[in-house]
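Input.
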Amino acid sequence: MKVLIVYATRTGTTERAARMLAGHFPGAHLCDLREENPDPSGYDIILFGSGIYFGRILRPLRNWLNEYWEVIRPKIKGVFICNALIDEVPELMRSNFSLELRNASVVVESFGGEYSPKNLNIYERIRLKLTHKELLGGQVTELVPCILPDRVKAFADEIYDYIEIKGLQ
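Output.
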Protein backbone atom coordinates (compact mmCIF):
# COMPACT_ATOMS: atom_id res chain seq x y z
CA MET A 1 0.00 0.00 0.00
CA LYS A 2 1.26 3.45 -0.91
CA VAL A 3 1.61 5.83 2.03
CA LEU A 4 1.68 9.63 1.90
CA ILE A 5 2.73 11.57 5.00
CA VAL A 6 2.18 15.32 4.76
CA TYR A 7 2.94 17.86 7.43
CA ALA A 8 3.04 21.57 8.16
CA THR A 9 5.76 22.80 10.47
CA ARG A 10 6.98 26.18 11.61
CA THR A 11 9.84 25.36 13.96
CA GLY A 12 10.79 21.88 12.75
CA THR A 13 9.16 19.84 15.51
CA THR A 14 6.42 18.44 13.28
CA GLU A 15 8.98 17.62 10.62
CA ARG A 16 10.97 15.58 13.15
CA ALA A 17 7.79 13.80 14.25
CA ALA A 18 6.75 13.11 10.63
CA ARG A 19 10.20 11.67 9.88
CA MET A 20 9.87 9.44 12.95
CA LEU A 21 6.47 8.31 11.67
CA ALA A 22 7.88 7.67 8.19
CA GLY A 23 10.39 5.30 9.78
CA HIS A 24 7.45 2.99 10.52
CA PHE A 25 6.26 3.04 6.89
CA PRO A 26 9.10 2.01 4.55
CA GLY A 27 8.74 3.65 1.15
CA ALA A 28 6.33 6.33 2.38
CA HIS A 29 6.37 9.65 0.55
CA LEU A 30 7.13 12.36 3.12
CA CYS A 31 6.04 15.86 2.15
CA ASP A 32 6.57 19.29 3.73
CA LEU A 33 3.58 21.37 2.64
CA ARG A 34 5.72 24.51 2.55
CA GLU A 35 7.64 23.00 -0.35
CA GLU A 36 5.14 20.77 -2.13
CA ASN A 37 1.37 20.39 -2.61
CA PRO A 38 0.97 16.66 -3.31
CA ASP A 39 -2.13 15.18 -4.90
CA PRO A 40 -3.16 12.31 -2.58
CA SER A 41 -5.16 10.45 -5.23
CA GLY A 42 -2.36 7.94 -5.97
CA TYR A 43 -2.02 6.84 -2.33
CA ASP A 44 -3.89 4.31 -0.22
CA ILE A 45 -2.98 5.69 3.21
CA ILE A 46 -2.83 9.40 3.99
CA LEU A 47 -1.24 10.52 7.27
CA PHE A 48 -1.13 14.21 8.00
CA GLY A 49 -0.24 16.55 10.78
CA SER A 50 0.69 20.01 11.88
CA GLY A 51 2.24 21.96 14.63
CA ILE A 52 -0.12 24.14 16.63
CA TYR A 53 0.32 27.88 16.50
CA PHE A 54 -1.85 29.83 18.94
CA GLY A 55 -4.44 27.07 19.00
CA ARG A 56 -4.60 26.49 15.24
CA ILE A 57 -3.08 24.02 12.83
CA LEU A 58 -0.85 25.73 10.31
CA ARG A 59 -2.35 27.27 7.18
CA PRO A 60 -0.59 24.99 4.65
CA LEU A 61 -2.34 21.94 6.15
CA ARG A 62 -5.71 23.74 6.38
CA ASN A 63 -5.42 24.73 2.71
CA TRP A 64 -4.32 21.25 1.62
CA LEU A 65 -7.20 19.58 3.49
CA ASN A 66 -9.70 22.00 1.94
CA GLU A 67 -8.31 21.41 -1.54
CA TYR A 68 -8.15 17.61 -1.34
CA TRP A 69 -10.85 16.61 1.16
CA GLU A 70 -12.98 14.83 -1.45
CA VAL A 71 -9.94 12.77 -2.50
CA ILE A 72 -8.88 12.06 1.09
CA ARG A 73 -12.36 11.24 2.41
CA PRO A 74 -12.52 7.56 1.29
CA LYS A 75 -8.87 6.77 2.06
CA ILE A 76 -7.31 5.26 5.17
CA LYS A 77 -6.15 8.25 7.16
CA GLY A 78 -4.50 9.28 10.39
CA VAL A 79 -4.22 12.74 11.94
CA PHE A 80 -1.49 13.99 14.25
CA ILE A 81 -0.57 17.25 15.90
CA CYS A 82 2.53 18.38 17.72
CA ASN A 83 1.87 20.38 20.86
CA ALA A 84 3.52 20.36 24.24
CA LEU A 85 0.41 21.09 26.29
CA ILE A 86 -1.28 17.69 26.43
CA ASP A 87 -4.25 19.05 28.42
CA GLU A 88 -5.25 21.04 25.33
CA VAL A 89 -5.33 18.07 22.91
CA PRO A 90 -9.08 17.25 22.97
CA GLU A 91 -10.06 20.87 22.40
CA LEU A 92 -7.39 21.37 19.72
CA MET A 93 -8.65 18.33 17.82
CA ARG A 94 -12.28 19.53 18.03
CA SER A 95 -11.49 23.08 16.99
CA ASN A 96 -9.11 22.21 14.13
CA PHE A 97 -10.57 19.07 12.53
CA SER A 98 -14.20 18.45 11.63
CA LEU A 99 -16.16 15.72 13.36
CA GLU A 100 -16.45 13.99 9.99
CA LEU A 101 -12.67 13.94 9.55
CA ARG A 102 -12.00 12.78 13.12
CA ASN A 103 -14.61 10.02 12.89
CA ALA A 104 -13.35 8.89 9.47
CA SER A 105 -9.73 8.66 10.64
CA VAL A 106 -8.20 5.46 11.96
CA VAL A 107 -6.25 7.39 14.56
CA VAL A 108 -6.13 10.99 15.82
CA GLU A 109 -3.23 11.72 18.17
CA SER A 110 -0.80 14.24 19.61
CA PHE A 111 2.88 13.34 19.41
CA GLY A 112 3.85 15.84 22.11
CA GLY A 113 5.87 18.88 21.18
CA GLU A 114 8.85 21.02 21.89
CA TYR A 115 9.44 24.54 23.06
CA SER A 116 12.73 25.77 21.72
CA PRO A 117 13.17 29.42 22.74
CA LYS A 118 15.55 30.08 19.83
CA ASN A 119 12.72 29.21 17.39
CA LEU A 120 10.13 31.43 19.08
CA ASN A 121 9.32 35.03 18.25
CA ILE A 122 8.71 37.62 20.98
CA TYR A 123 4.95 36.92 21.19
CA GLU A 124 5.54 33.21 21.53
CA ARG A 125 8.10 33.80 24.27
CA ILE A 126 5.57 35.91 26.16
CA ARG A 127 2.96 33.16 25.76
CA LEU A 128 5.45 30.59 27.02
CA LYS A 129 6.12 32.73 30.10
CA LEU A 130 2.36 33.02 30.73
CA THR A 131 1.96 29.27 30.27
CA HIS A 132 4.85 28.71 32.67
CA LYS A 133 2.95 30.79 35.26
CA GLU A 134 -0.17 28.69 34.60
CA LEU A 135 1.90 25.55 35.12
CA LEU A 136 3.21 26.84 38.42
CA GLY A 137 -0.34 27.88 39.41
CA GLY A 138 -1.72 24.44 38.61
CA GLN A 139 -4.07 25.43 35.75
CA VAL A 140 -2.08 23.35 33.25
CA THR A 141 -1.33 19.91 34.60
CA GLU A 142 0.68 18.25 31.87
CA LEU A 143 3.43 19.77 29.75
CA VAL A 144 5.28 17.39 27.45
CA PRO A 145 8.25 19.34 26.07
CA CYS A 146 9.38 16.64 23.64
CA ILE A 147 8.20 14.39 20.85
CA LEU A 148 6.94 11.10 22.28
CA PRO A 149 8.29 8.16 20.22
CA ASP A 150 5.89 5.74 21.95
CA ARG A 151 2.92 7.73 20.65
CA VAL A 152 4.39 7.81 17.15
CA LYS A 153 4.82 4.02 17.23
CA ALA A 154 1.33 3.46 18.66
CA PHE A 155 -0.08 5.65 15.86
CA ALA A 156 1.68 3.52 13.23
CA ASP A 157 0.56 0.32 14.96
CA GLU A 158 -3.08 1.45 14.84
CA ILE A 159 -2.81 1.99 11.08
CA TYR A 160 -1.25 -1.46 10.62
CA ASP A 161 -3.89 -3.07 12.88
CA TYR A 162 -6.66 -1.45 10.85
CA ILE A 163 -5.16 -2.72 7.59
CA GLU A 164 -4.89 -6.23 9.03
CA ILE A 165 -8.41 -6.26 10.47
CA LYS A 166 -9.87 -5.05 7.17
CA GLY A 167 -7.76 -7.55 5.21
CA LEU A 168 -6.29 -4.81 3.03
CA GLN A 169 -2.71 -6.03 2.77
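DSSP finds six helices and six strands in the chain.
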